[in-house]
Amino acid sequence: MPQYILRRLLQLIPVFFGTTFLIYALVWAVPGDPFAGKCGQVACPPAYIEMMTAKFNLDDSIFVQYFKYLGNLFTGDWGETFNGVSVGELIGNAYPVTVRLALIAVAIEAIIGLSAGILTGLRGKGFLDNLVLMSTTFLISIPVFVTAIVLQIVLGSELGIIDASVSEDATIGELIVPGIALGSLSMAYIARLTRTSIAENRHADYVRTAVAKGQPRSRVVGVHLLRNSVIPVLTFIGTDIGALMGGAIVTEGVFNINGIGGLIFRGIQNREGATVTGVVVLLVMVYLLVSLIVDLLYAVLDPRIRYD
Amino acid sequence: MRASRGFWGATAVVATAALLLTACGGGGSSENKGSGATDANASVSVYGTEPENSLIPANTNELGGSKALKPVFSALVGYKSDTAEPYNLMAESINTTDSKVFDIKIKKGWKFHDGTEVKAKNFVDAWNYSANGKNGMQNASFFEQIQGYDEISAKEPAVQTMSGLKVVNDYEFQVTLKGPFSVFATKIGYLAFAPLPDKFFADPEAFAKAPIGNGPLKFVSRTPNQNMKLTRYDEYQGEDKVKFKDLEVRIYTSQETAYQDLLSNRLDFMEALPPAAKAGGKYKTDLGERLVEGKLLGISALALPYYVPGYNNLDLRKAISLAIDREQIVKTVMNDTYAPADGYVSRGIEGYRPGVCGEFCKFDPVKAKEFFAKSGFTGKLTIASNADGGRKEPLVAACNSIKNALGVECDFVPATDFGQWRSIVNNRQLTGMGRSDWSADYPSIENYLNPRYKSTGSSNDSTYNNPAVDALLTQADQTADKAAAIKLYQQAEELIAKDLPQIPVWEEKGVGGKSNRLKVAKLDFGRLADYSSIEVAAK
C-alpha cells in the first residue's frame, strides 16, 4: 500500500510538468499582442510596452519563459497580473470560496442523485422511474449557464427568495442555489449511474444469497447491494470534484462569486499567462490527489481490490 | 458524458464572454423629485470592473481603474458634470499670456489623505515621474506638449526632469510648453495630471496597493476581483465634496448580474446597461424613474483607410455615408441608447455646431447611388470591428443599409477582441472600412480633431493627411485666445467634412440606472458616476 501511494505520487511529477508547460505555452502562444488594446483607441507608448515585455519575459523563447516562470514558482512566487496584483494572493482569496461551492455542489448531487438512483433502481419501472428519467434528461439537456441564470432570475428577481449575487462573505446559505446550479448536471448523471448499477446488481447471486439467508431488507440494500453498486458512482464523484473546481467558471460568473473559476475566466480573457497557469497548476494537483483518494477508497469498498 | 459537458462549457464561456465584454454604455443625469432629507452617513455601491493596470493615476485610462482613482485624486482643473465646462479645482489661478508659458498657483491648505500638504512640487514631481520612459506609464504621452518631454520619455532617459517644469515656491509652479497650446489649461484636468504625495516616490508599488490622494474620497481597502472601498475625506476643501460617507466599487464578472442587483436595489448605481436590458428597449420599463440618462463625450465613425486600394475615393466615401440610415439604426438596433451623428464633435462640447457634416450625413439612397456610380468602385465593401459587446449589430445594420441603397455587397468582418482589433488598426492592416470610435479624454473640441485627423495623430485610423487641416489645427493649438482658437478648430472641421476621411455615424447618449435609495445621481461626460451629485434618501 505505501509503495502504491509513493508510486502514484511520483507519477504526479511528469504530469505536473506536462500540464503546466502545455497551459503556459497555450496561453502565451495566442497570436496577437497582449498590450495592443490596453491604451484605448491610441497605441500604447513604446516605453510601457517595453517595460511590460521585459517584466513578463515575452522576448524570450517560450521554453526560457516557462523555466523562468517555474523557477519563480518553486520559490513560492506565483507571478503577477498585468495590474500588479500577486497571483498567489488572488488564489488565496479565491480558493476557499470555490472549495465551499464545490463541496456544496458535491453534497447536493450526491444526496439527491444517490437517493433518486437507489429508489428508482430498486423499484424498477413505474411512475417514479419515469419521473426521474424525465427530469434527469431535462437537466442533462440544458447547459449550466441556463440553469444558473434561470435560477437567479426566478428565485432572485421574480420571487425575491435569494439575492441575485453572492456577497463578499459568500456564506454557505448564499452558496446553496449556486451549488444547485453547479451540481445539477452531475446530479442527473449520478442518479442515472446509480439506478443502472443498482438495477444490475439487484439480481446478482450474492444479493439473492443474502435474501435467502433471511437478512433484513435494509441490510441487503445498505450493505450488500450498495457497497458494490457505488463504486462507479464514487469514481464519478471523485473526478467531479476536480471538474467542479474548474467548471465553476460559468456559475461563479453568473452569481458573481469571486472564486477560482472567475479567476481562470478573467485570466484567459486578459491573456494573463501567470494567472491561468497558476490556477491550472492548482487544479491539476487537486484533480490528481482526489483521484488518488478515490482509488484508495476502492479497497475499502471492495476488499478484493488490492494495491501491490 | 464528458464531451457534452465540455461542449456546453465552451458555449457558456463564449456566451458569458459576450456578456462581459459588453460595451459600457451610459452617461447622464436623472433626478427624483423626492423631497426627503439626504442621509450624509449613507454608503453607496457602484458597479465596477477590475482595474486593468496598477492604481497609479498616470497608469489608469480605462473605466475600471478610473472609477476607483478619480474620486481619490483632485487635479488642478475639474469639469462641471452638466456642461463639461472646466473650472479651477486645486488651482488658484492658471495664467498665461502666450499659451506657451503657464503660471499655475495652487490653493493653500489642501492635504493629501496622509496629512501632508499638497505643494507645487507634488505636481512637478508627479508629472516628471509619469513622463519618464523608465517608469513605463501608459499615459506618458499626455505630457508630450511640455518642454523636455522628448528627452525624458526615452527608454533610458539621460535627464530625470523636464526642462519645462519649474517650481517657483510652495504654491506656485511654471510650465513651459514646446510651443503654444491653447487647450493645455483644459487638458490638465485629466487624471494623469494629479499630484502625488512624497510617499509615492519612496515605493510606487506599495502606493499602487493603497493609493494616497488629495480628493474627496480616500482609499480604504481593496480585494482584487471583489471590491474597492473608499470613504469620505472629511477635511476635503474642493467644491466637489461628496454627500455620502462610504463608497464601494463592487466588481462584477457579469453586467447582467449587476443589473439584476440594481433592479432589486442591492446595487446603487450602474453607468452601463447590459445588452439584454437594452434589447427592445426593456430598460425603459425596467427602470422607469430610476433611469439615468446623459451626454457622453464620444463619437462613433467608420474609418475609410486611404491605404486600402479603391477606398481612396471621395465619391465612394460620400456614397457610403449617404447610404447609411442612421435614424433607423439608432432607433431599432440601438434602442435609443445612441443618437445619429452629424459632425466630428460631440454635442455639448464648446465649439460644436449642428450639421457640420451636412447633406452627406443624411440618408439619401438616390444620391448615394449616383455617387456610387461616379466612384467606379467594384467589388465588395467590408466593415471590420471587434464583434463583442454589442459592437457587431449596428455595424451589420449599417452594412445592410449600404447593401440596400447601393446594391453592392457589404460584409461585417469580426475581430476576436478589442486588443486584436486595435492591433489590426494600429499596424495598418485594415482591408476595408473599420469602426473608429472615440471617447474624449478631456472636454475640448481639440481632443476630437488632433488625435484623429492630424496626419501625425495618435488615433488617425484612416491615415488621413491634409496639409491644410494640419496647418489649421497647428495654428489653433498655438492661438492663445480661446474663442479665436475654437474658430480655427471649426474651420479645420469644415475641411475635414469636405474630405470625409471618416464617416460619422452615431454618438452614444449613455444610459445607466440607479437604485431607489438614491435621490440624485448623475453621470459625467466620461461615463463615470458624478460622485459629488449622489444623494441618498434618509430613511
Automatic annotation (TrEMBL), chain A:
Keywords, in A-Z order: Cell membrane, Membrane, Transmembrane, Transmembrane helix, Transport
Which family, according to UniProt?
Answer: Belongs to the binding-protein-dependent transport system permease family.
- Protein's cellular compartments: Cell membrane
Q: What is this protein called?
A: ABC transporter permease
Which is a Gene Ontology cellular component entry for this protein?
plasma membrane
| PANTHER family linked to this entry | DIPEPTIDE TRANSPORT SYSTEM PERMEASE PROTEIN DPPB-RELATED, DIPEPTIDE-TRANSPORT INTEGRAL MEMBRANE PROTEIN ABC TRANSPORTER DPPB-RELATED
Chain segments annotated as transmembrane: 12-30, 97-119, 131-155, 276-301
Domain ABC transmembrane type-1: residue ranges:
95-298
One Pfam match: BPD_transp_1
Q: What is the lineage of its organism?
A: Bacteria, Bacillati, Actinomycetota, Actinomycetes, Pseudonocardiales
Can you name the source organism?
Amycolatopsis keratiniphila subsp. keratiniphila
